[in-house]
């Protein structure tokens, strides 16, 4: 497995939720040879220094959806609350990892179908439990507040697609790492900060605090958006394989949006557009209103089955995103040079 | 447990049991005379140390529940229906294997669901399998209508227990292979049957062919000993021993045999329990009505989340089931049981 696919595999098979997990370490490993690393809060910051005092921030959230332990009973059955938007209808017999004193494997269960009173309703999260197979020993290993992530490994799907848990948003993280690879050995007139932010799925406190702390003059956020699949009309989504989705919205900077399109056209890479009427439901919404304002653009990777362990993306779309970002940085770098 | 792991990880959806059949033949051929019947059942005559007074048939089914492809869409997605009873909740966002490839069952993102959609389960025909084909012609190169898919789920430990797909009924296959290879006291017939999940198909014909006096069915049965279920609805308990059944949805078991089986378990110091909810059904349903009737006992391993990719059971129970079956075969074959 070459290059970006291998990095993506390692990222997806690691975890990151609410400040715990090894995904930050994996990202650090792949970026420390091109950038100066520091940990800030629960986020990872990587800086590529340029000649002038102008900073572009590239953001991709590194956290994933998951759950928090709320109770452990005497028979080793664990109750949880959601951390991020989860469809409880899919949880029956789904495997998870509880990040306790050690990693505990578990499986979701509830009253079996043939014993259920109402045939019509759906199971809510408070009717579901995690079976750990540990019996009364569970209470000594697992604590209330422990984080829970989905358990699913990375797999290839056909030639160009991949499936794993946490492709939202390790795809974005991989795109940033690939962009940094492309910028290697390039002389830049601007600084580039890559922010791998935590807590996007639960209100965005990671990006809010880090955009405040880091001093940047403009930004692009990279996330995932809806991809074509059964039950979703083509108006509501991007098409897998047709390239990065450049976001267009009243909240995003028109200039940056145009520069992202220009970048894509200059290198002749495929892209799509995603038009939204207001907020984008990504970190871009928070970056834009930081301090006195930071003009922000948005690139999204089309993705199927969002917020499930069965997410699917096309590898070519991650590459397209990275290429557009790297070219955008070059455009900005020349603009800074001309200004001075 | 390595043998059980190997068995569980093979894919053998009803009607396509080849992989498991070949594996079992390899494992028992040195200790039995094997015939394969027109439906694909293995009918194995096992020579014991002594000739049997009564013909005993011991059955485990080779097939597992799965999916069968009904059509391919213009977008390269696979539509399917279930083979055997699978609740839709354990299909959503699940991974499957089809023709050696990975596929995922799609799920509409939670963000795009209407309030109505959030309160209902999707229907099977709104689901599809994604194998990463960009269009129909790409998909058609790899999959045909009628191909089958099974859960992509590996055999692992879960605390003190085991978790895997297809514990129903690879645990029966494992136990029966073990009994065959352990120099049984008396001759008996071992049947590894097909199509249990689609109507006890193989057992009907295997019972006709063997024409036994007694039968033992080795199975997995549903255990609901989990949080949220009332005490009297738990059916049976994981790690509390081999399950004996007095009635399920397919069979009202012979009372004498049922009582004798309990007695034997106690005498032989084998942990056992009685299933206390009438639920499920197994090959005994077909066997006990074969020809003029066959006295039949079912001995089962309690199994949580049966018919899902994540069945959970205890290896202690699997051994108890095997041990109890060995004794039952002896008492039946010698005629001592009645």
Walkthrough of the structure:
The complex is a heterodimer of chains A (340) and B (338). By secondary structure, chain A is an alpha+beta fold. Chain A is built from eight helices and 17 strands. In chain A, the strands form three sheets. An eight-stranded mixed sheet of chain A has the order 1-2-12-3-13-16-14-15, with helices on both faces. In chain A, strands 4-5-8-7-6-9 form a six-stranded antiparallel β-barrel. In chain A, helix 6 links the parallel strand 14 and strand 15 (271-275). The longest helix of chain A is centred in the last third of the chain and has 25 residues, at 315-339. Chain A is globular and about 70 Å long. With 338 residues, chain B is an alpha+beta fold. Chain B has nine helices and 17 strands. The mean pLDDT of chain B is 96. Chains A and B meet through strand 7 and strand 10 of A and strand 7 and strand 10 of B.
The poorly predicted ranges of chain A are none
Number of contiguous helices of chain A: 8
Biggest interface, chains and residue tallies: A-B, 66 and 59 residues
- Strand % of chain B is 15-25%
Q: Over the alpha carbons, how many angstroms does the gyration radius of chain A reach?
A: 21 Å
Shape of chain A: globular
N-to-C order of helices and strands of chain A:
HHEEEEEEEEHEEEHEHEEHEHEEH
State the low-pLDDT regions of chain B, or none. none
Biggest sheet overview of chain B: 8 strands, mixed
Mean pLDDT over the full residue set of chain B: 96
Structural class of chain B: alpha+beta
Instruction: Write down the oligomeric state.
Output: heterodimer
- The helix content of chain A, as a percent range, equals 25-40%
Distance between the termini of chain B: 35 Å
Roughly how many Å is the radius of gyration of chain B?
21 Å
Task: Tell me the overall shape of chain B.
Answer: globular
Q: How many DSSP E strands of chain A?
A: 17
Strand percentage of chain A, roughly?
25-35%
What's the mean pLDDT score of chain A? 94
User: Could you describe the largest sheet of chain A, including whether it forms a barrel?
Assistant: 8 strands, mixed
């Amino acid at each position: 497995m070459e290059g970006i696919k291998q990095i993506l595999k390692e990222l997806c098979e690691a975890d990151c939720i609410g400040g715990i997990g090894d995904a930050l370490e994996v990202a650090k490993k792949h970026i420390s040879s091109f950038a100066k690393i520091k940990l800030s809060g629960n986020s990872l910051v990587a800086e590529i220094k340029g000649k002038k005092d102008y900073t572009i921030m590239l953001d991709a959230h590194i956290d994933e959806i998951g759950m928090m332990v709320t109770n452990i009973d005497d028979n080793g059955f664990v109750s949880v609350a959601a951390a991020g938007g989860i469809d409880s209808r899919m949880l029956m017999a789904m495997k998870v990892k509880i990040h306790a004193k050690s990693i505990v494997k578990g499986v979701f269960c509830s009253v079996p179908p043939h014993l259920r009173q109402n045939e019509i309703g759906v199971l809510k999260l408070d009717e579901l439990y995690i079976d750990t197979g540990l019996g009364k020993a569970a209470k000594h290993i697992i604590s209330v507040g422990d984080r829970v992530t989905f358990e699913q490994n990375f797999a290839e799907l056909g030639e160009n697609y991949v499936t794993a848990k946490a492709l939202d948003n390790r795809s974005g993280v991989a795109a940033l790492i690939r962009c940094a690879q492309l910028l290697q050995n390039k002389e830049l007139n601007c600084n580039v900060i890559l922010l791998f932010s935590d807590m996007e799925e639960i209100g965005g406190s990671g990006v809010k605090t880090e955009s405040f702390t880091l001093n940047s003059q403009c930004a692009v956020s990279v996330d995932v958006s809806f991809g074509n699949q059964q039950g979703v009309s083509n108006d509501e989504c991007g098409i897998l394989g047709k390239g990065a989705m450049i976001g267009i919205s009243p909240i995003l900077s028109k200039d940056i949006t145009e520069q992202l399109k220009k970048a894509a056209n200059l290198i002749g890479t495929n892209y799509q557009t995603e038009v939204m009427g207001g907020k984008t439901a990504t970190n871009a919404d928070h970056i834009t209103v930081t301090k006195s304002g930071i003009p922000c653009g948005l690139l999204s990777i089309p993705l199927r089955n969002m917020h499930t362990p069965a997410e699917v993306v096309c590898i070519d779309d991650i590459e397209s995103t990275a290429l557009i970002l790297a070219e955008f940085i070059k455009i900005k770098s020349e603009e800074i040079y001309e200004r001075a | 447990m390595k043998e059980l792991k190997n068995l569980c990880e093979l894919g053998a959806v009803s009607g396509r049991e080849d992989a498991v059949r070949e594996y079992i033949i390899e494992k028992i051929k040195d200790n039995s005379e094997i015939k394969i019947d027109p439906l694909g059942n293995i009918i194995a005559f096992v020579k014991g140390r002594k000739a049997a007074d009564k013909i005993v048939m011991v059955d485990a089914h080779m097939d597992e529940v799965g999916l069968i492809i009904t059509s391919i869409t213009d977008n390269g997605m696979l539509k399917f229906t279930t083979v055997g009873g699978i609740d839709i909740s354990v299909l959503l966002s699940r991974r499957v294997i089809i023709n050696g490839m990975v596929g995922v069952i799609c799920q509409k993102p939670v963000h795009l669901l209407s309030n109505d959609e959030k309160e209902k389960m999707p229907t099977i025909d709104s689901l599809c399998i994604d194998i990463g084909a960009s269009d129909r012609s790409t998909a058609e190169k790899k999959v045909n209508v009628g191909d089958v898919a099974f859960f992509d789920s590996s055999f692992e430990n879960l605390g003190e227990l085991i978790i895997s797909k297809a514990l129903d009924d690879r645990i029966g296959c494992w136990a029966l292979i073990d009994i065959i290879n352990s120099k049984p006291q008396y001759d008996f017939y071992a049947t590894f049957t097909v199509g249990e999940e689609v109507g006890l198909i193989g057992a009907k014909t295997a019972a006709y062919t063997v024409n036994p006096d007694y039968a033992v069915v080795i199975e997995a049965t549903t255990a609901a000993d989990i949080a949220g279920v009332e005490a009297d609805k738990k059916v049976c308990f994981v790690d509390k021993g081999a399950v004996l059944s007095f009635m399920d949805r397919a069979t009202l078991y012979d009372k004498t045999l049922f009582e004798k089986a309990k007695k034997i378990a106690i005498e032989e110091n084998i942990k056992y329990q009685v299933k206390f909810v009438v639920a499920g059904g197994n090959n005994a349903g077909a066997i006990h009505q074969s020809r003029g009737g066959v006295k039949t006992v079912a001995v089962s391993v309690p199994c949580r989340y049966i018919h899902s990719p994540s069945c959970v059971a205890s290896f202690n129970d699997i051994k108890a089931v095997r041990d109890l079956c060995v004794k039952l075969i002896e008492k039946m074959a010698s005629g001592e049981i009645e």
